[in-house]
Amino acid sequence: MQPKHFYLIFFLLAFLPGCLIKPIEVPNPWEDVLGFEMNTPIKSMYSDGVQLYVAADDEFARISGSGNLLERRPLPLPFRFFSRPIMGRHCFGRVVRRTAQGLPELELRMNNNPDFVLSQEFNSLSGTSQQAVFPEEDSRYSGSFNVEGDLMILPVINISENRHDFYLIDIEFDATKNSILSTEATVVSVPELPAAFGSISNIRFLNGFFYVVTLDGTFRISTDGDYSKIFQTHLWDLFESQNRFYAVDRGSILHESEDNGETWVPKPDQVVLQHVETAGDYVLTHQALGFPFAISDDDFQAKKDLLLNENFPQDFAAYRQILFFEEAYYLNVQKHLYKVDDLQTVD
Q: I want to staple 226 with a disulfide (CB 3.0 to 4.6 A). Which of 39, 119, 222, 299 is the partner?
């Protein structure tokens, strides 16, 4: 072998692999929407199809369909908050105690009018001052609005009667939906649900009814205040996907309803779902509020972890909610809001 050939081969063997092997790039698909962090972690989000509303304990923000910040609104800090802000189409609610000696209040604020606020003590909502009632604060969602945003459900613990009550609050807005003209509350008393703190794990509005998931079973409450107990045991969650209505029990058995939640039929196979969020056509699940999400397959038999940016926190308090808005997916991560065009999974 000629010396020059030897040196050429040596050069190729030494340096060619380094040229061919490229470093593995860790994708960071999520884009920071706000460009800043909010003062406190984001607790709730809601989209009315035109704007995205984001609420923390002491701030509220509005995002346009193109992802631009429309408003960043400070919210006054009371003595104490209870659970998460309850988001609706026209307004959002906070359950607060303004002072150490004060009574719990429902505070309603308009989405598009920072100057309007309506505060009502719990006793004024119920129409009586003779009963001791307290907020239920441990549920995943501490209340819910109907689709139109003019009816709200609020759970309370009625210590005097040893039961849970649910306030169905009918809200009348002005023509511009920038202020509230009046509210009227219907009290739905549920003696089957004792006055134990931490009994409620979730509240949702699905296809015309409120669903309350509790340790003592699941209740279906109509907008007129009629209720029925549809499950005797504790569920993980209820959700709607592809125009089908599902519930997941604590034994990981999937139940399906074909009559809008009145009756349920268990499926033969176990599923991987626990607490569920739906976003677009995706069904996502996580073990508890704040845990990272995973994406389920179509039959809910398998799941893959949602791909996150490499700098996202690896803790169990950061990931509260994900939703689909204007052809993008929005995820709140502690004090930040991120979006991505499509969801990816970790292979």
A: 222
CA–CA distance, 66 with 245 (Å, rounded to integer): 32
For residue 51, give Cα distances in angstroms to 33, 45, 62, 90, 203: 13, 11, 7, 11, 23
- For each of the chain's 347 residues, which pLDDT tens digit applies? 555 554 444 444 444 444 444 444 558 999 999 999 999 999 999 999 999 999 999 999 999 998 899 999 999 988 888 889 999 999 999 999 888 888 889 999 999 999 999 999 988 887 766 677 888 877 778 899 999 999 999 999 999 999 999 999 999 999 999 999 999 999 999 999 999 888 999 999 999 999 999 999 999 999 999 999 999 999 999 999 999 999 999 999 999 999 999 999 999 999 999 999 999 999 999 999 999 999 999 999 999 999 999 999 988 999 999 999 999 999 999 999 999 999 999 98
176: its two tokens: 């511009």
Sheet with 91-97, side-by-side order of all strands: 80-87, 91-97, 105-110, 117-121
Report whether 221 contacts 229 (CB < 8 A). no
Burial of 120 (0-12, 13-18, 19+ CB in 10 A): middle
Output the CA torsion sign for 148, 201, 189, 96: negative
264: which 2 tokens? 């349920």
pTM of the entire predicted model: 0.90
